[in-house]
Structures are given as C-alpha cells and as structure tokens.
UniProtKB/TrEMBL annotation, chain A:
<dbReference type="GO" id="GO:0006826">
    <property type="term" value="P:iron ion transport"/>
</dbReference>
<protein>
    <recommendedName>
        <fullName>Rab-GAP TBC domain-containing protein</fullName>
    </recommendedName>
</protein>
<keyword id="KW-0406">Ion transport</keyword>
<comment type="similarity">
    <text>Belongs to the CCC1 family.</text>
</comment>
<feature type="transmembrane region" description="Helical">
    <location>
        <begin position="157"/>
        <end position="177"/>
    </location>
</feature>
<keyword id="KW-0926">Vacuole</keyword>
<dbReference type="GO" id="GO:0005774">
    <property type="term" value="C:vacuolar membrane"/>
</dbReference>
<dbReference type="GO" id="GO:0005384">
    <property type="term" value="F:manganese ion transmembrane transporter activity"/>
</dbReference>
<keyword id="KW-1133">Transmembrane helix</keyword>
From TrEMBL, chain B:
<dbReference type="InterPro" id="IPR027417">
    <property type="entry name" value="P-loop_NTPase"/>
</dbReference>
<keyword id="KW-0547">Nucleotide-binding</keyword>
<comment type="similarity">
    <text>Belongs to the small GTPase superfamily. Rab family.</text>
</comment>
<dbReference type="InterPro" id="IPR050209">
    <property type="entry name" value="Rab_GTPases_membrane_traffic"/>
</dbReference>
<dbReference type="GO" id="GO:0003924">
    <property type="term" value="F:GTPase activity"/>
</dbReference>
<keyword id="KW-0472">Membrane</keyword>
<dbReference type="GO" id="GO:0005525">
    <property type="term" value="F:GTP binding"/>
</dbReference>
<dbReference type="GO" id="GO:0012505">
    <property type="term" value="C:endomembrane system"/>
</dbReference>
<dbReference type="InterPro" id="IPR005225">
    <property type="entry name" value="Small_GTP-bd"/>
</dbReference>
C-alpha cells in the first residue's frame, strides 16, 4: 500500500505529534494547546485510517468486480467476487494498518535523538483503534460497488459511476479533515488520482472484453452444435421404450451431469447411445417382462433418481479410460482406427489389400464403431451381451476393442472382397445384422480370443 | 474403376451435406436417395454416405453424397470430406434462427477446407412447420445473393423441393464442368496445371469418376 511508500516523507509530522502526545518529560509552556492537539491527533489517526480504508476498499472491490465481469459476463460471479474481496480486504486491512503504524513508530524511535518513550499501553490502544477504523472504512468503501451492482440493472457503467461519485465524497471528507496533518498522509491526493485509476480500470475492462468475445454462458457451451436436448428424443428410435418422455428426461439429466463434469470433451453426439445399456440393466431390476411393455411411470421418483445415479456412475467409469475419444479432433478414436487397420492387414491380407485398392479408408466406417462402441451396428437386444464383454475388460478395454472390431469386420471378409468402393462404404455403414441373434454375436466374440493369440509374436507385436 | 457397379453413368459428382446438428441433413439425403423419411432418425456420427444416379441436362450423373455430422466436435473429421467435393448443400432449419446465423461459420469452414470453386447451395429445411418459422425467406434469399449462393427452401417430410434442390446443384456443377472441359480441350495445359489438386483426390478414391470430370473440380 502507498502508506508505506509515503511514510518516510511524513515522518517528521508524525514524530512531532507523537512526541507531543507523550510529552510528560518536558514542561511545555503551551500546555493547553498541546492537550488539544493530542486529542485531535488521536482522533485524526483513526479517521485517517478509516477514510484511507474506505478508499482502498472502494478501489480494490471495484477493480475485482470489473475484472471478473470482463471475463465472465455474469452478475452473480461479479457480486460474489466483490463480496469475497470485501471480506478478504476487511480482514487484511487492519493487520496491515497495525503493522505499518507499528513500523513507523519503531522507525521514529530509532531515528529520533530526543529519546522519548511512548506509553506502551497507549500505543497499543491507538493501533487497535486505527486498525478497527480501517477495517470499517474498507467495508464501507467496498460496499459501495457491491450495493451498486445489486440495485442497478445496467451494472457495469453505473457501478463505475457510483464508485467515482463515492470517491469524490471520500475525497471531500478527506480534505475537510486535512486540518490534521496526519490526514494529508492518509487521504493522499484526494479524488483526482482515484478518478484516473477508475478510468484505467474501465479501459482495462473493455480491453479484456474485446479479447474475449466468445465468453458464452455454460448452457450455450454445452448445447452448442449438437445438443443433448436434440439428441435424447432420437436415441435408439427403433425401441419404443425410449420414446417415453420420462425416459428421455432421465437420459437428459444423466448426460447433462456428465457433460458438466467432463468439460474437456463436453457432450459429444453418440454418448447418448452409450447410456442406454446401463439404463436398461438398472431398470430391469424394477420393470419386468419385455422392454416394449415397460413404463417409467411404474417407478417412484426415488427409484428413478437411483437408476439415474447408477447410470451416471457407470457411464463415467466406462468413459474414464477413453476421454481422448471425445476431445478435440478425437485423437483416441483416430489412434484405434489406425490400430484396427494394422491388425486387419496382419490377420487378413486379402481383404485388407482389396480395401486399399478400392481407396477405402477405415475411418470412413470404423469411426462410428469406436465412437458408439458398436451400439449402432448390432440389434439393441444384443447390446447388453456386448457390454458384458466390454466391462469384463476393465481398463484394457480401448485396446481390446480393436480385436473385437476386427473379428466383427472379418465376419464379412469374403463378401467384402467382391465389392467396389461405393458398395463397400454402403455395406460397412449399414451392416446386415438386423436379424442377428446371440449366436452370431457369440461367434464374433469367441473369435476375438483366437485373433488375440493367433497373431505371430502376439506378446511383442500387439497392435 | 467402379468395376462392381453395373449401372452406367457419364459423370460422378461428389457433394457434401453440411449444417448444424438436427437441421435435417440426413432426412434430405434419405428422401433424395431412397424416398424415405424418419421423424426420429439417429444423429449422424462422423460421415454417412449414399448415392443416386439421375438425368442432368440429358446426361446420366451419379451423385455421391456425403452426409456429415453437424456437431462442432466432428468438424475435424468431417472437414476432410470437403476436399474434392464439387458441391456443398449448406442446410439450416427455418424454425431455428441460430442454425441460420451459423451459416456464415459453415461458409468459412468451406472456404478453409474445400476447393475454391465448389458450388454452394443454401437450403432452408422444415418448411412444413409453418407455424414455427423463425427465419424469413427474404432474409435467407438476401443473404444467399450477397454471398453468391443458390438458395431454396425444402421440406424433407413433405418431399417439397428436395428433388429440385439436388437437380439444381447437380446442373450447376454440370454446367461448370462442361464449360471447363470445353476450355480445357482448347487450352489443356493451363487447365490441368490449375486443377492439380484434384488428381490427388481421385487417387485416394479411384471410383470418384469414370469419365470426363477428372480434370475438373
């Protein structure tokens, strides 16, 4: 604080006063006058601390609120930061005041040749009073912008205006009290410097804002482009159960919570599919019979909350090892697609070279496989079986997916080798699995182990 | 090339469908290629693909259409498909003004990743939802004129203007192609050099063309 910076200039003044205050040693001809000065100077010290505290509170709180406002155009964040700044300042001001006065006195004691001794108790009392005064001052000053922000709609401009006005008032109070020389130090250069500072704050605020034009509220960030609300109604449309509004609302809550808790990726289309097996499994505890006859209204709201919590937890756990599948440019998926291509090249060269000849990229069909964990490629009633295998793999799942998907792809190995580019894309994007039963899926899964062990030097060359 | 395909065609045009999530890109495509519409179709993940062969200006043209995912996160994946595309259908939802506001961002995306002379058509979809309309036809028309795009409003649900939209963009591409192949037969050297980029594209996708358009983009 500038009190430390200016204190050396003001030292003689303070010195005189404190000397006067503790003047028991020498007899003074103007005793009455001195008595009067003592009283006044004591009070002035407290008042000075209070006005200085108020000005500091005003500055710091306004500065803090403007900075927060520039980064996040949100009145709540701005108010909260202002209030917290106020509390923090009101706590630290008195400590600083205490230390600074103490240091001054100590300096004077060393500096002074006249060797007076200030009454220890008296000194302590004075410091406490001054500290308290500065704390109250800071609180009052800091309240100005906070209250202004609470009551004024177009907060930014008006908070600044009110702060400037308050600064003027504080400055005036200061100058009225300048009779006491102590106050010259305390209040400093009344309003003018403050006004310049305020104008600078405002300028900074505008500058920061101009460089952050895209600071959007959380809602817009989460919902931009592909929104949870848009996707929930079109989740597994072939199963009528998912068309029930209550099911869609549950899905929405699970996904929304997940998206908020995973800001690095946020909600990515296709994650809505990944919740569905969990939802079905946890609901099957309460709802019996075929899924088409299920109704969410048979469940109490507590039961629904529990199911949602379980689904959220399982989804988080499943995706924890695959976060980079859903971050920018989806590097995790790109890496696994590349691994799949390499694996297929090793275990089935004919189909691999045919695809290459046709100019088919694995990314053109396998991207969705990894993004939705094959959920879109098999009938929904088989998905829980598939999930069973996934969950059994635990942390090794991402790499294990490559083997499952290779086995899945090679189900059509012979057929694929007869097709041209367009037919290949068409069939691989719409694989004929509609009529699949557990038998076909078991076949795919049982071949996985064979692939896993059948690769030459599989231990060293695992892709 | 295209050895498995029995059907004959004179040209093969690659076209991409782009626009915000949920504006109806996939349904425009399914209406055009299979005459199907599904009210609650799944969101598109990455890129989906369909083709249809039709008559354009007396020639048989095979349209190879790449339907892209609308969500921002898929932009890095989908923008790879803009390369080598001769046309782009930029779709917005007439009931959702934000999808129209984002059109300029999609245009920038095309200018960054697609070939410079790509034919772009702006499509306002879902005109069947008359009571929910949020984007005036005149506004979109004005914007399209300003940006030099063709413009049409469609309803994939009612099958209104879907055929016309595809016909229009394919004709436009055809006109540009035939003009170019004409001029390239006169000044072949300069034209090929200018279109060097396209050659790389046809290499990576050998079946992109079977005839005249390989020197154009």
């Amino acid at each position: 604080m500038d009190s430390l910076g200016t204190s050396s200039n003001e030292m003689p003044i303070n010195h005189v006063e404190i000397l006067a205050h503790s003047n028991d040693i020498e007899a003074n001809p103007n005793q009455d006058m001195e008595e009067y000065n003592i009283e006044y100077s004591e009070r002035a010290q407290c008042l000075g601390a209070a006005v200085f505290g108020a000005k500091t509170g005003l500055f710091i709180t306004t500065l803090l609120m403007m900075a927060i406002e520039a980064l996040d155009e949100n009145i709540i964040a701005m108010l909260l930061s202002g209030f917290l700044g106020l509390v923090a300042g009101a706590c630290s001001m008195p400590i600083e005041e205490f230390v600074s006065v103490d240091t001054e006195v100590a300096q004077m004691e060393v500096h002074d040749n006249k060797h007076y001794k200030v009454d220890e108790d008296d000194k302590l009392l004075n410091h406490f009073q001054a500290s308290l005064a500065s704390a109250i001052g800071f609180s009052i000053g800091g309240m100005v912008p906070v209250l202004a922000a609470v009551f004024i709609k177009d907060y930014k401009l008006l908070v600044i205006s009110v702060a400037m006005l308050a600064l003027l008032v504080f400055g005036r109070i200061g100058s009225v009290l300048t009779k006491s020389k102590t106050l010259v130090r305390r209040t400093g250069d009344d309003g003018d410097g403050g006004w310049i500072t305020m104008a600078t704050i405002f300028g900074f605020n505008e500058l920061i804002r101009s460089h952050h034009p895209a600071t959007a509220p959380l809602d817009t960030l989460l919902y931009s482009g592909g929104s949870i609300a848009v996707d929930c109604p079109r989740t597994v449309p072939e199963v009528s159960f998912f068309q029930q509004q209550q099911v869609q609302k549950s899905l929405e809550r699970i996904l929304y919570t997940w998206a908020i808790r995973h800001p690095a990726s946020g909600y990515v289309q296709g994650i809505n599919d990944l919740v569905t097996p969990f939802l079905v499994v946890f609901l099957s505890e309460y709802l019996k019979g075929a899924i088409d006859n299920w109704s969410m209204s048979d469940l109490s709201s507590d039961q629904i909350s529990n199911v949602e919590a379980d689904c959220y937890w399982c989804l988080s756990n499943l995706l924890d090892g695959m976060q980079d599948h859903y971050t920018f440019a989806q590097p995790g998926i790109q890496r696994l697609v590349f691994k799949l291509k390499e694996l297929v090249r090793r275990i089935d060269d004919p189909v691999s070279s045919h695809m290459e000849e046709q100019g088919l990229e694995f990314l053109q069909f396998a991207f969705r496989w990894f993004n939705c964990l094959l959920i879109r490629e098999v009938p929904f009633h088989l998905v829980t079986r598939l999930w069973d295998t996934y969950l059994a793999e635990g942390d090794a799942l991402p790499d294990f997916l490559v083997y499952i998907f290779a086995s899945f792809l090679l189900t059509w190995s012979e057929q694929l080798q007869k097709l041209d580019f367009q037919e290949l894309v068409m069939i691989l994007q719409h694989l004929p699995t509609k009529k699949w039963t557990h038998q076909e899926l078991e076949m795919v899964l049982s071949l996985v182990e064979g692939i896993y062990q059948g690769i030459p030097d599989s231990e060293d060359n695992r892709v | 090339m295209g050895r498995g395909a029995e059907e004959e065609y004179d040209y093969l045009f690659k076209v991409v469908l782009i626009g915000d999530s949920g504006v109806g890109k996939s349904n425009l495509l399914s209406r055009f290629t299979r005459n199907e519409f599904c009210l609650e179709s799944k969101s598109t993940i990455g890129v989906e693909f369909a083709t249809r062969t039709l008559e354009v200006e007396g020639r048989s043209v095979k349209a190879q259409i790449w339907d892209t995912a609308g969500q921002e996160r898929y932009r890095a994946i989908t923008s790879a498909y803009y390369r080598g595309a001769l046309g782009a259908l930029l779709v917005y939802d007439v009931t959702k003004p934000t999808t129209f506001e984002n059109v300029s961002r999609w245009l920038k995306e095309l200018r960054d990743h697609a070939d410079a002379n790509i034919v772009i058509m702006l499509i306002g979809n879902k005109t069947d939802l008359k009571h929910l309309r949020g984007v005036a036809t005149e506004d979109a028309q004005g914007y399209a004129e300003k940006e030099g795009l063709s413009f049409i409003e469609t309803s994939a649900l009612e099958a209104t203007n879907v055929e016309k939209a595809f016909q229009t963009i394919l004709s436009e591409i055809y006109r540009i192609i035939s003009k170019k192949s004409l001029s390239s037969s006169h000044h072949s050297a300069s034209a090929t050099v200018k279109e060097g980029k396209t050659i790389a594209v046809t290499q990576s996708q050998p079946s992109t063309t079977n005839s005249l358009c390989c020197t154009s983009s």
